[in-house]
Amino acid sequence: MKLTILGCHSATPRTNTNPTSQVLEIKNHMFLIDCGEGTQVELRRNKIKFSRIKHIFISHLHGDHYFGLVGLVSTFRLLTRETELHIYGPKGLKEVITLQLKLSDSWTNYPLIFHELTSKDSELIYEDNKVEVHTIPLHHRVYTNGFLFKEKENERKLDINAVLNANINMAYYRKLKQGADVENDDGIIIKNEMVTKDPSPSQSYAFCSDTVYDENIVPLIKNTTVLYHESTFLDKNEDLCERTKHSTARQAAIIAKKANVDALILGHFSTRYNGYEEFRSEAKEEFDNVLLAEDGKTFEF
Amino acid sequence: MKLTILGCHSATPRTNTNPTSQVLEIKNHMFLIDCGEGTQVELRRNKIKFSRIKHIFISHLHGDHYFGLVGLVSTFRLLTRETELHIYGPKGLKEVITLQLKLSDSWTNYPLIFHELTSKDSELIYEDNKVEVHTIPLHHRVYTNGFLFKEKENERKLDINAVLNANINMAYYRKLKQGADVENDDGIIIKNEMVTKDPSPSQSYAFCSDTVYDENIVPLIKNTTVLYHESTFLDKNEDLCERTKHSTARQAAIIAKKANVDALILGHFSTRYNGYEEFRSEAKEEFDNVLLAEDGKTFEF
């Protein structure tokens, strides 16, 4: 699982900071999460192939999370893309993108499929044989969802020496990986746990931005491998959280602790601060494994 | 008259090239012309104060000319702007900007005034006591206008020694500057041309992008000081001009020559080319004073 931060700053793009966008590489997918102005340039800067992006997830319709989307959709067209593009985001997104395509008299030459979200409950919005994506309803000034990306349980691993010794036909290897007991060439039933090992643990990633501190999300992200939680402010500006529906670094860390995640990545920093180390130190008072997002930074898990 | 090129490349923003946007400083105005994605960052990079921009002119609704506008409008709001903002552009622009504001539940706290254009004839769209702005109907794939910015005729200059010798009361200086004859303190009529000099010549700037080669614009831009004319292609790709409704460098230069302008600036280069010197050399075969636009470059006239 590899996460590339294209932008992790709030409000407006600047010469040295980008608004929210990130790419999650998981089970051979490249999921683009949020798409602030300038995202297509950051994709190029980070050498991410446009053609590998097939699913885009938009948390909410504030500009710093999606003003780069229409440009990316248009650029895909200019690059003569033919592959389907699926966009998941709040109701209204389809209207705003298609209106702009209509005004420019240039429809896409690839299938552009919108999955508009309106539910206030968590939903399964994407699934294949390797991953699932669920929404995480968040509490912000407008309708907002975070997204939980979960690898499905991996297959059991063959203990190849044990398998050979047990005289099992190769035709049964698939069943073994799926956890079944099998009959060997001598007609003896071989218990699965005798010839296989536990699978490598499945990983998961929860993206939660923008949101006020909200313990309702804890059950949804329980035991997640990595949690990205916004931390727009430091303790000294906590008074701004309720009005703007944002969180502090400490609040993000409390959520991480309650959800028992392995690692917390902080981001969506307000540009009022000069450095971000204080975000880490305030969060570490509540939760140990705190990482800081940074434009252009890659995390591998 | 000072022109700052924020972006002068066609189609898509890239790590080293920006789509169309420029700022014309004329008679204390800062006119923003077109606003491709990333324009607000380029304004910051070029240290142009956001508060000085009160009028934005959008040529047409292709993304490389206006996808940065909604972000700029939103950033003005976040910066608690109170001054009026006037936006001139094709019909449809108001709908697309206000839809995005509505979806983000964040109206502007400053007056945002749209002047939607639909005429196929040249129109006077802005006027004060120092400048006029006229549309230049262009011929592109969608409804498009160029813009002609004209200083009004400057006042005559006082020949101060002659004025003093002629014994003229200071109260008449204003009338002299406006070209009138006046009576001096001895009751004698003083002919204006005896005590004043010709005004400094008025300057003008014509922005023409995007457009196919079109001689119909020549009368509208006749004797303009500076013409910015798109030149997306070189001679060798002239065949693409008719289909895409763009021009070559040579065609831009022929327009400059026919319109008898002082200087021609070429821009809106296709990213298919590596360098741009060939644009200059091909254009110079038709017209002498050819300049090349470049992101971040400033021209003073």
TrEMBL record, chains A, B:
Quaternary data: Homodimer.
GO molecular function: 3'-tRNA processing endoribonuclease activity; zinc ion binding
Cofactor: Zn(2+)
CDD domains found in the cross-reference section: RNaseZ_ZiPD-like_MBL-fold (cd07717)
Lineage: Bacteria, Pseudomonadati, Bacteroidota, Flavobacteriia, Flavobacteriales
Keywords: Endonuclease, Hydrolase, Metal-binding, Nuclease, tRNA processing, Zinc
Positions with a binding annotation for Zn(2+) 2: 64-65, 210, 268
Catalytic site: 64
UniProt cross-references to InterPro entries, sorted A to Z: RNase_Z/BN
Catalyzed reactions: Endonucleolytic cleavage of RNA, removing extra 3' nucleotides from tRNA precursor, generating 3' termini of tRNAs. A 3'-hydroxy group is left at the tRNA terminus and a 5'-phosphoryl group is left at the trailer molecule
The record's free-text note on cofactor binding: Binds 2 Zn(2+) ions.
Family of this protein: Belongs to the RNase Z family.
EC top class named in words: hydrolase
Protein name: Ribonuclease Z
Residues given in the record as Zn(2+) 1 binding sites: 60, 62, 140, 210
Enzyme Commission number: 3.1.26.11
Entry function: Zinc phosphodiesterase, which displays some tRNA 3'-processing endonuclease activity. Probably involved in tRNA maturation, by removing a 3'-trailer from precursor tRNA.
Organism of provenance: Winogradskyella luteola
Keyword Hydrolase: yes
Pfam families: Anti-Pycsar_Apyc1 (PF23023)
